[in-house]
Design goal:
With 309 residues, this protein is an alpha+beta fold. The chain has 2 domains: 136 residues, Aminopeptidase (3-Layer(aba) Sandwich), CATH 3.40.630; 132 residues, Aminopeptidase, CATH 3.40.630. The protein is built from 9 helices and 12 strands. A 12-stranded mixed beta sheet has the order 1-2-3-4-5-12-6-11-10-9-8-7, sandwiched between helices. Strand 2 and strand 3 form a beta hairpin.
């Protein structure tokens, strides 16, 4: 379909869908057969409205707007053609998105409006994405579920997904470090150096903090510290206007606790006015004690799950 025709189709869908999304009482009726429509058929305004309606009572709602969703699709290599919207009687009931890198796929932004949960709509979306992953010649599908989201976790297990590890979402408020650290020297590095450091990473990243995700997001910085006692290591991070994000810490020599504290001390001494949020730190990461000592708290946990194809 030519681009102009596609845009016209999206505008027509937007006129039809957005008023319905703003009238949740319409979902109280019994709806007929649900069908899966490619997310590429809809504008970002329609997709984000459907997503926000599906997540309005979620454990962690994570509301979005169209600009943020567009950035999300780019950052995480979401394939809109393989992603789907559940539709019945011309109304969106939910959606699910699929990231694609090489021979792996990643299921994300899965949500169904509250009145259509537990009626098979979520499983239908999942089965469509599993089939799409096979069509993309993927060998493994990855997803994450928030800990204690029992219905979703149960559905994923039913569909053949198995737990691999627990991941922490951590935060630290602005402020200068108040923790004593071993003496060190620090070197501040640019985005190119940050990308080179990521190639040395020994930890196993999740989809959210894989190197392609971080490079796509941009605004990377890094610093390297050397302790007077001889240990050394580095940290890569993303800096936005109000927040530090996506911390990747590696100790190259010495104690991870001492090197980690020095790295975080240097980071927050340089950026004391910024809030910090970092997602998907493995619960067993050797730097978690240093992060806790530097004032980080666990906001919530995700359970990473894989399914082989």
């Amino acid at each position: 379909m030519p681009d102009l025709a596609l845009a016209a189709t999206q505008r027509a869908r937007e006129r039809d869908f957005l008023p319905l999304l703003n009238r949740p009482n319409l979902y109280k009726i019994t709806l007929p057969e649900v069908r899966a429509v490619s997310a590429s058929e809809f504008s970002f305004d329609v997709l984000v409205a459907a997503y926000n309606q599906a997540r309005m009572d979620y454990i962690v709602p994570m509301p979005m707007n169209a600009a943020r969703l567009r950035e999300y699709v780019y950052k995480y290599d979401v394939d809109l053609r393989a992603s789907v919207v559940a539709v019945a009687e011309g109304r969106p009931l939910g959606l699910a998105m699929l990231g694609h890198r090489e021979r792996r796929t990643w299921i994300t932004r899965l949500g169904v409006i509250p009145t259509r949960r537990r009626d098979g709509t979520g499983q239908m979306l999942m089965e469509h994405l599993i089939a799409a992953s096979r069509a993309l010649d993927a060998r493994v599908i990855i997803l994450e579920v928030i800990q204690n989201n029992v219905p979703a976790h149960r559905m994923f297990r039913k569909l053949g997904f198995n737990e691999t590890r627990e991941l922490l979402i951590i935060r630290r408020p602005p402020g200068l470090p108040e923790v004593t650290v071993p003496p060190y020297t620090v070197e501040h590095l640019d985005a190119d150096a940050a990308t080179q450091l990521l190639a040395r990473r020994s930890s196993l990243p999740s989809w959210l903090d894989e190197t392609p995700s971080l490079v796509n997001a941009g605004n990377l910085g890094a610093l390297r510290v050397t302790l007077d006692a001889g240990g050394w290591g580095w940290i890569v991070y993303r800096k936005t206007t109000f927040q530090l994000q996506a911390l990747v810490i590696q100790t190259e020599a010495g104690s991870p606790d001492d090197v980690g504290r020095a790295l975080l001390h240097a980071l927050h001494t340089r950026h004391p006015a910024l809030d910090t949020k970092s997602e998907n730190l493995p619960a067993q990461d050797v730097h978690w004690p240093a992060l806790r000592a530097m004032g980080y708290i666990e906001a919530f946990r995700r359970i990473e799950m894989h399914r082989a194809l």
